[in-house]
Structure formats: C-alpha cells, structure tokens
C-alpha cells in the first residue's frame, strides 16, 4: 500500500501541464531519434541533454523529458528495421528478421502497428515491475558497504561491455580507457594533479556531459559524413509500401501469449546490470522461435517474430531502470547516460534516492506510465508520418545534431575549451567505432571511475590497509563471483557459436 500511495504522489507531480508537455515532446523526439538509423536511444538522450539544461529545467522535468526520449527511441527503433532492414539501434536488430519480410509482403503498416502494441505491452508491465521491485532492491542495497560497492562497480564493468560486445578484450580496453579518463584532474585526497599535463582547465576533471555528447552525437556526425554518397547512405534506399495500418484482432490475439512471455523474459534481462535491451531482444526472439516456430515461419515474415523482440527490448528498457535507480548502477548504455544526467543535477542514485528525493523518483515512474500511453496513441495513427522522416537527408539532419551539440555544451559551461574537448571526444568516438570498440564502457568508466576509487580507498582505509577486506563478506564474494562469470561466460559462448557456425559451414560444403 505504501508503494501505491507513493505512486499516487508521483502522478500528482507528473500531471502538470509542463511535465505532460515535456513527456509528449520527449516521446515525439525519441520516436524520431529511434527511427533514424544509427542514432538509437543512447545517442538520442545524449543529443538532447544540452537542450534540457539550456531550457533551465529542474531535476524532475529534465528526467521526464529524457526518459520519455528513451522510451520513445525504444519504440521508434523498429520503424527503420521494418521499412529499410536497417535497425535504428542495436536492440531493434532482431525485429529486422521478420519485420522486413512482412514489409516486403506489403504488410509494413501491420508490422509497424503490431510492433507498437508489443512495445506498449513490454513497457507497461516493465514499469509495473519497476514500481514493485525497485523499493525492495533498495532494502537490500542498504546492506552495502564500501567493499560491496567496489565489487558492484567491478560487476558493472565486467558485464556491461561483455554481453553486448563480440570481443571481450575490446570491452575491457574501453572500460580501462574510461577509468583512465576518470583519473584526470586533481586527486581529492592528496591534492596532486593527475594526467593534466599542466593544463589548468583539466584540474576539475573532464565533464562527463562533454564526453557523452562528443562520443555519441559528434561521432555520429563523422560516421554519417564518412558514409555520405555510399551504399550505407539511408537516403538512397527505395521507398516501401505501408499497406494496412491496423492489425486484425485475430492477429493481436495470436501474438498476445508471445508478448506476455517475452515481456517477463525481457524485464529479467534488463534488471541484470550490463545485459540491457539487446540481450532482452535476442533471448526473447530465440526463446519464441524454439517454443512456437513449428512450421519454420520465423525469419520469413511471422508476426510473432516481430512481437517477441519488441516486447522483450521494451521490457528490458524498463528493467534497466531498476538497478540504476535502486543501486546507482546502470543496467544499459542509455541508463548510463541517464545516470550522468542525475549526477549533474546533484542527485545521487542509490538506496537513499527513494527516501531523499521521492518526488523525483515517483514523478519519473508516473511519467513513464503516461509516456507509454502517449506513445501508443502517437505511434499507430502516425506511422505514415514517421516513415516519411526516414527520408530526411543526412545533409540536413547532421548539421542540426552538430548545432545542438555545440550550442548546448557552450550554453552549459560557457567554455570554449570544453568545445575543443568535445571535438576530441567526437574524433575518439569515431576511431573507436571504426575499430569496433564499444563506447558504453568508456562512458561508464568516466562516470563511475571516481566513485569506484573512493569506495576502494575507503574500504582499504577502514581495514587498516588490508586488501582482503574486499572479499570479506558473503555479499562481496557473491558479487565478485557474478562479475567473473559475467566476464568469462561470453568468451566461451562466443567460441561455441564460432565452432557451431564452422560446423554448419563444413556440412554445407559437404552437401554442395
């Protein structure tokens, strides 16, 4: 009852004209960001952070705007997957498998509407999961001391790049790079400058908003510039027929069990730190294919193959907010960006967030419910409009992204040095993308590096220099064990997948 009472208070906070307008704006912009191939939720949120700060919004309105962008981008990611066979973001990749064949059969409108309904089911139940699970997780989080927090941060680093990345070494390199960036500035304990090379502007360290906008938004501009006029240019793709926009009741009924099963699975995947929406989408599709694909229709335009990954990845997006709000550890790349926003608003996510800032947390959760209904109402009738947006040429889109980035960052800091740092991060992001190094661990290292160091020093100081204190409690041992398994398991799974693929290739070769 206490939880429902807090949720009712949250609706009082969220149901103001300003917050409703921001949720609507966030949903609209998020859907556009998600629909444009390559941008995705992380980039969408990163691009709009300067806008939230420039408008001078408070903590709750800023979070409502940015989480609405997050949910909107998760909805919108499917549009280019279905129409162009180009996923708007990584979690929407599995939607291509059946969504694009449906579009080729002249059922693009049906596939888009069905994916919108599946996204709504996934997000709606995941938000209820957030309401019920996050306060319980907070009670567990109060058992955490410095040693346990250090183990928890290590767990986040070990798993965040691991599950989504194809190469563990590159994920580990990216995390180390992020931690090195976090070391820049004056050491708070000794007062000694570290890695500043005599530059006074670096004494306060690197502002993670500058790093995020550079790594995600500006690197996207460089990538688009690189691909302009080539086969990867999205404006060169042919137009697709939309067909019927509303799916039949029979089709919705046949997909309902799939949506409910994959919502549960996606939510669990989202709650695990580091798993995120990509894993939710992948295992949802794989499980449904094994369970219901008796006639081998998956991959050839089966509507259940569209509903499963969409419900899974949207449920995972809601689940990823649970560890971010309750423990201060992001469950996905986009929640890592949202964590940066919270920290820059002087709000520390974690166990005390629910008691110290209940209006922010419950107002945010209530706004998520409202945003879900807005997205459902917006997405089905406006399918035709959003599809036209895919035809916006990069020569118009990318200057807008660059302009928002530069004006926004200068508006926040008023420092031309920060603009140079942002351009540097943009080039770094472009190079890392070319080398297939994941960007999220870099951001995570920049964000959590200082907290990780502080907790490490605090734990060792309390134990009079005894490093074994990091492994002293059953909770920290459990976290270390999960971190090791989370880091090592993808290596073995990757090897197994390679061996299986080689075996299949050999069999194919023998048959030929």
Automatic annotation (TrEMBL):
<protein>
    <submittedName>
        <fullName>Tripartite tricarboxylate transporter TctA family protein</fullName>
    </submittedName>
</protein>
<dbReference type="Pfam" id="PF01970">
    <property type="entry name" value="TctA"/>
</dbReference>
<feature type="transmembrane region" description="Helical">
    <location>
        <begin position="20"/>
        <end position="39"/>
    </location>
</feature>
<keyword id="KW-0812">Transmembrane</keyword>
<feature type="transmembrane region" description="Helical">
    <location>
        <begin position="324"/>
        <end position="348"/>
    </location>
</feature>
<feature type="transmembrane region" description="Helical">
    <location>
        <begin position="169"/>
        <end position="186"/>
    </location>
</feature>
<feature type="transmembrane region" description="Helical">
    <location>
        <begin position="392"/>
        <end position="412"/>
    </location>
</feature>
<feature type="transmembrane region" description="Helical">
    <location>
        <begin position="467"/>
        <end position="493"/>
    </location>
</feature>
<feature type="transmembrane region" description="Helical">
    <location>
        <begin position="419"/>
        <end position="447"/>
    </location>
</feature>
<feature type="transmembrane region" description="Helical">
    <location>
        <begin position="206"/>
        <end position="225"/>
    </location>
</feature>
<feature type="transmembrane region" description="Helical">
    <location>
        <begin position="263"/>
        <end position="285"/>
    </location>
</feature>
<feature type="transmembrane region" description="Helical">
    <location>
        <begin position="111"/>
        <end position="134"/>
    </location>
</feature>
<feature type="transmembrane region" description="Helical">
    <location>
        <begin position="140"/>
        <end position="162"/>
    </location>
</feature>
<keyword id="KW-0472">Membrane</keyword>
<feature type="domain" description="DUF112">
    <location>
        <begin position="20"/>
        <end position="444"/>
    </location>
</feature>
<dbReference type="InterPro" id="IPR002823">
    <property type="entry name" value="DUF112_TM"/>
</dbReference>
<feature type="transmembrane region" description="Helical">
    <location>
        <begin position="45"/>
        <end position="71"/>
    </location>
</feature>
<feature type="transmembrane region" description="Helical">
    <location>
        <begin position="360"/>
        <end position="380"/>
    </location>
</feature>
<keyword id="KW-1133">Transmembrane helix</keyword>
């Amino acid at each position: 009852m206490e939880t429902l009472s807090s949720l009712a208070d949250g609706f009082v906070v969220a149901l103001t004209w300003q917050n409703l307008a921001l949720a609507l704006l966030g949903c609209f912009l998020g859907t556009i960001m998600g629909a444009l191939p390559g941008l995705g939720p992380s980039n969408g949120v990163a691009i709009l952070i300067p806008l939230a700060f420039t408008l001078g919004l408070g903590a709750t309105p800023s979070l409502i705007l940015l989480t609405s962008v997050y949910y909107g981008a998760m909805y919108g990611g499917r549009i280019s997957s279905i129409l162009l066979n180009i996923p708007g973001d990584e979690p929407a990749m599995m939607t291509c498998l059946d969504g694009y064949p449906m579009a080729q059969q002249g059922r693009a409108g049906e596939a888009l509407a069905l994916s919108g309904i599946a996204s709504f089911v996934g997000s709606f139940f995941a938000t209820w999961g957030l309401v019920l699970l996050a306060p319980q997780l907070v009670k567990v989080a109060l058992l955490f001391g410095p040693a346990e927090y250090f183990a928890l941060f290590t767990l986040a680093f070990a798993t965040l790049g691991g599950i989504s990345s194809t190469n563990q070494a590159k994920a580990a390199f990216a995390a180390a790079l992020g931690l090195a960036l976090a070391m820049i500035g004056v050491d708070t304990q000794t007062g000694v400058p570290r890695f500043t090379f005599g530059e006074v502007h670096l004494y306060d360290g690197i502002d993670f908003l500058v790093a995020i906008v550079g790594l995600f938004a500006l690197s996207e501009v460089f990538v688009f510039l690189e691909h302009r006029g080539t086969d990867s240019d999205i404006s060169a793709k042919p137009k697709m027929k939309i067909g019927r926009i509303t799916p039949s009741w029979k089709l919705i009924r046949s997909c309902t069990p799939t949506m409910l099963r994959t919502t549960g699975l996606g939510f669990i995947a989202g709650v695990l730190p580091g798993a995120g929406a990509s894993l939710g989408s992948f295992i949802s599709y794989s499980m449904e294919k094994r369970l219901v694909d008796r006639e081998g229709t998956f991959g050839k335009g089966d509507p259940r193959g569209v509903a499963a990954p969409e419900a899974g990845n949207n449920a995972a997006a809601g689940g990823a907010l649970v560890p971010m709000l309750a423990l201060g550890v992001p469950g996905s790349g986009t929640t890592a960006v949202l964590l940066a926003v919270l920290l820059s608003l002087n709000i520390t996510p974690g166990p005390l967030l629910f008691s110290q800032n209940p209006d922010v947390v419950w107002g945010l959760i209530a706004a998520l419910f409202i945003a879900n209904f807005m997205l459902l109402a917006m997405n089905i009738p406006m399918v035709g409009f959003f599809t036209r947006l895919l035809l916006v040429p990069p020569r118009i889109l990318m200057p807008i992204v660059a302009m928002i980035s530069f004006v926004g960052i200068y508006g926040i800091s008023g420092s031309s040095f920060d603009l140079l740092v942002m351009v540097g991060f943009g080039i770094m992001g472009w190079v890392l993308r070319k080398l297939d190094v994941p960007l999220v661990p870099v951001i995570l290292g920049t964000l959590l590096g200082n907290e990780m160091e502080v907790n490490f020093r605090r734990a060792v100081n309390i134990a009079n220099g005894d490093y074994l204190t990091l492994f002293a409690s059953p909770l920290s041992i459990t976290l270390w064990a999960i971190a090791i398994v989370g880091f090592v398991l993808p290596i073995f799974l990757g090897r197994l997948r390679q061996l299986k693929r080689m075996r299949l290739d050999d069999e194919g070769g023998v048959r030929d």
